[in-house]
Every structure is written in structure tokens, then in C-alpha cells.
């Protein structure tokens, strides 16, 4: 059974139009006009148990709307969803026992009471037996170093402390699927990396399936082997992160540190005719841009054979650059390949 199975899922919001001016407002009183916003447009994907999948897209692409449908908060306009075998908006009570949710911008903890009291309330909501609750709480508190925070009211926690508590709250009932909507938003680099390590451990030790929505592509790099990319309500990429990089990356930068001053014309002469470009950083450091179509070992061999090299660093194009490029280029994608390795029908990208 797939952890998440989504077929031709669509969500259309109906919003009222506000006419301008006093006469417009009066007209609205008697006859409202509506327009439709198609936030999610017939998307399909499956996520097997135990996978960490990134769900990315620009503002307004439809990510949160999808997560809300997957967690049963919103009802789809059309299409089918199964999460852990349940239809989320129907079988609410049994369905929520199997999922955990963290919305980075919204808290599931009670603001004015101690963190531990919030956890106790959630234990009741999810009907977790006392012994199980204790052992799970001990494990999570130790892992996320929450010991000192448990008696503090949530309003007195820093954002990083609160987010660690939110994660505990979402995992107390041992859900098999975790939905994370911007879990690292606004956090400093240390807390971000703590949270990423924690999620990796949860996935490895308990096989927790994670669907992660984020604008922070470092989250994706650190956690996800697969990414689903959304644009204007449609899936425009579904596949491996490495494949995404290979497909979209235009080349590599290779930085050389030389043992003595090495002028650019000498380096350009060594690599003449193979299509690389040089940039001097200083007298003893230069960077060679190697487009994908150029053979890297040939380019390297030419430099190694003619210059005194102390150090070499290779920089791949990073995910941030690639994703920015995809959103801004409007380039056509090749057929989307699902994580299962099956080539799906061509998803026409509408990239703006
Ligand atoms: N309750 C709603 N009523 C009307 N329109 C909505 C509602 N919720 C979302 N939308 C619209 O649906 C589209 C998708 O919004 P959604 O919040 O899913 O995008 P998102 O990818 O999560 O964006 P962000 O990264 O900014 O959170 C947007 O055009 C948004 O304005």
C-alpha cells in the first residue's frame, strides 16, 4: 500500500468579487459576483511508505492547498486521495491517528499553558496509553533536548524551541506519515540543521514517511531523495533530486590553486578549442567553467599537464540555482519520471 496516493486531484476556490466604490458595494449587497481560483489542477502522485519527499513551488503554486487536502482540512473539488488507505476528509477520527502535521506558521500548542500540559492534552486527543506516551515522550525530549522547556508556557519559547516542541507534539502518537509545511521557516542555521538531523533519524529508525513543503532548498538537499515540483497548480517535475540536477545543471566550475602566478592567456592556451571559459580570481587562483557537453577529464588533463597545481575544487550547480532557473526559464521538461522509475505521460510544464 502506498502511504499517499493522489489521483487527478483538483481544488477550486470560489471567491466573491468586490466591486469598486459605494455603488459597487451596494450592488454587491444585492447581487454578489464570484470568480473561481483553480489552486490545484488535476495532480497525481504516489509516495511509498518510508520516503522523504520534497514538495516545492513558488508562492501560490498550490502546495499548502494540497497539504490541507491530504490532511483532511480541505475537501477536494474533484479527484481521489488515499493517505494510509483512508480518505482524509471522511474517516477523520481514525485517519488522524496515523498522521502528524507541523505548519511552521501556525502552532498546535496552547499558548498560555506549559509545554508538557499541551503534550498531555494531545495524549488525550490521540488516546495514547500512558506507558506508551511516557516512553515516546522520553525518547523525543532527549533527542530534541527539551528537558528544561517542558514546564514553560509556549509564549515564552523562542521560535527554535517552539518548533522543536511542535515536532514532538506531532509525533507523540507515533504517526507513520508526517506532513511538514515550512518547518524551518525563520530558524537560524543551527536549529535548522538540528531539525534536519532529527527528521532523518525519525525516518531511518521508525520508517516515518515525510512530505515536506519548503522554500528552503537546503532542507530538500539535506533530506529528500525525491522532489515534486509544482507550478501554477500543476506538477511540473516528479523525480530524483540528482536527476533534477543532472537534467538542469549547465555545467561545473573547477577552481585551481596554482603553485606560482599563472596568467589567464596561458590557461586559455592549454584548453584552447574545447569550449571552457576562464576567470582569474587572483594571480594564483583561477576558475574554469566547464559546460556539460565538455569532457571534464579532458579539460582537467590539459590543465594538469601544463600548470603547477596545488589544489583543485569542483563546484556543482546548486539546487537553488537550478530551481530558480526552472521557474524563470520556461524551458520544456522531458517526460516526468516517477520515483518508482516509471516514465509517466509528458507533463507539459507551464513555467513562468
Ligand atoms: N481559502 C482560499 N480561498 C481562496 N483562494 C485561496 C485559498 N487558499 C489558497 N488560495 C489561492 O490558491 C492558490 C494556491 O495557494 P497555496 O496557499 O496553496 O499556495 P502555496 O504554494 O502554498 O503558496 P505559499 O508558498 O505562498 O504558501 C493561490 O492563488 C491562493 O491565493
Task: Describe this entry's structure for a reader.
Among the domains are: 4-98 and 175-246, P-loop containing nucleotide triphosphate hydrolases (Rossmann fold); 250-316, Alpha-Beta Plaits (2-Layer Sandwich), CATH 3.30.70. Helix content is 35%, strand content 28%. The protein is built from 12 helices and 13 strands. It has a 6-stranded mixed sheet with strand order 5-6-7-3-8-9, sandwiched between helices. Helix 9 crosses helix 12. The longest helix is centred in the middle third of the chain and has 18 residues, at 189-206. The two termini are 36 Å apart. The protein binds adenosine-5'-triphosphate. Adenosine-5'-triphosphate (ATP) binds at residues 13, 15, 37, 39, 57, 59-65. Residues 13, 15, 37, 39, 57, 59-65 line the site of adenosine-5'-triphosphate. Residues 331-352 are annotated as: Disordered. Keywords: ATP-binding, Nucleotide-binding, Transport. InterPro entries: AAA+_ATPase, ABC_transporter-like_ATP-bd, ABC_transporter_ATP-binding, P-loop_NTPase.
Topology:
Blueprint: E1 4-17, H1 21-30, E2 33-47, E3 52-57, H2 63-70, E4 78-83, H3 92-96, E5 99-103, H4 115-125, H5 130-143, H6 159-171, E6 177-181, H7 189-206, E7 209-213, H8 217-223, E8 226-231, E9 234-240, H9 241-248, E10 251-258, H10 264-270, E11 277-282, E12 285-291, H11 296-306, E13 309-316, H12 319-329
Parallel strand pairs: 3-7, 3-8, 5-6, 6-7
Antiparallel strand pairs: 1-2, 1-4, 8-9, 10-12, 10-13, 11-12
Amino acid at each position: 500500500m502506498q502511504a499517499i496516493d493522489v489521483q487527478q486531484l483538483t481544488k477550486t476556490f470560489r471567491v466573491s468579487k468586490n466591486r469598486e466604490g459605494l455603488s459597487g458595494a451596494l450592488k454587491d449587497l444585492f447581487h454578489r459576483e464570484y470568480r473561481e481560483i483553480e489552486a490545484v489542477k488535476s495532480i497525481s502522485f504516489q509516495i511509498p511508505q518510508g520516503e522523504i519527499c520534497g514538495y516545492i513551488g513558488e508562492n501560490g503554486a498550490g502546495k499548502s492547498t494540497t497539504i490541507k487536502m491530504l490532511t483532511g482540512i480541505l475537501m477536494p473539488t474533484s479527484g481521489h486521495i488515499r493517505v494510509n488507505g483512508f480518505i482524509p476528509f471522511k474517516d477523520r477520527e481514525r485517519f488522524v491517528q496515523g498522521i502528524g502535521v507541523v505548519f511552521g506558521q501556525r502552532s498546535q500548542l496552547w499558548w498560555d499553558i506549559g509545554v508538557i500540559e499541551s503534550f498531555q492534552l494531545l495524549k488525550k486527543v490521540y488516546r495514547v496509553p500512558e506507558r506508551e506516551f511516557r516512553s515516546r515522550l522520553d525518547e523525543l525530549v532527549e533527542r530534541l533536548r527539551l528537558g528544561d522547556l517542558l514546564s514553560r508556557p509556549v509564549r515564552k519559547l523562542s521560535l527554535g524551541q517552539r518548533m522543536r516542541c511542535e515536532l514532538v507534539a506531532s509525533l507523540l502518537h507515533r504517526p507513520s506519515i508526517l506532513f511538514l509545511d515550512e518547518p524551518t521557516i525563520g530558524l537560524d542555521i543551527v536549529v535548522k540543521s538540528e531539525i534536519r538531523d532529527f527528521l532523518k533519524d525519525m525516518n531511518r529508525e521508525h520508517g516515518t514517511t515525510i512530505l515536506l513543503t519548503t522554500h528552503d532548498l537546503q532542507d530538500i538537499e539535506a533530506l529528500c531523495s525525491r522532489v515534486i515540483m509544482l507550478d501554477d497548480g500543476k506538477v511540473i517535475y516528479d523525480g530524483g533530486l540528482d536527476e533534477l540536477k543532472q537534467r538542469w545543471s549547465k555545467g561545473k566550475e573547477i577552481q585551481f590553486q596554482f603553485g606560482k602566478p599563472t596568467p589567464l592567456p596561458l590557461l586559455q592556451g592549454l584548453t584552447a578549442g574545447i569550449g571552457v571559459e576562464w576567470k582569474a580570481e587572483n594571480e594564483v587562483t583561477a576558475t574554469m567553467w566547464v559546460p556539460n557537453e565538455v569532457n571534464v577529464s579532458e579539460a582537467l588533463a590539459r590543465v594538469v599537464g601544463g600548470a603547477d597545481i596545488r589544489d583543485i575544487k569542483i563546484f556543482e550547480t546548486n539546487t537553488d540555482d537550478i530551481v530558480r532557473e526552472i521557474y524563470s526559464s520556461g524551458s520544456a521538461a522531458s517526460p516526468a519520471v516517477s520515483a518508482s522509475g516509471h516514465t509517466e505521460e509528458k507533463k507539459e510544464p507551464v513555467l513562468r
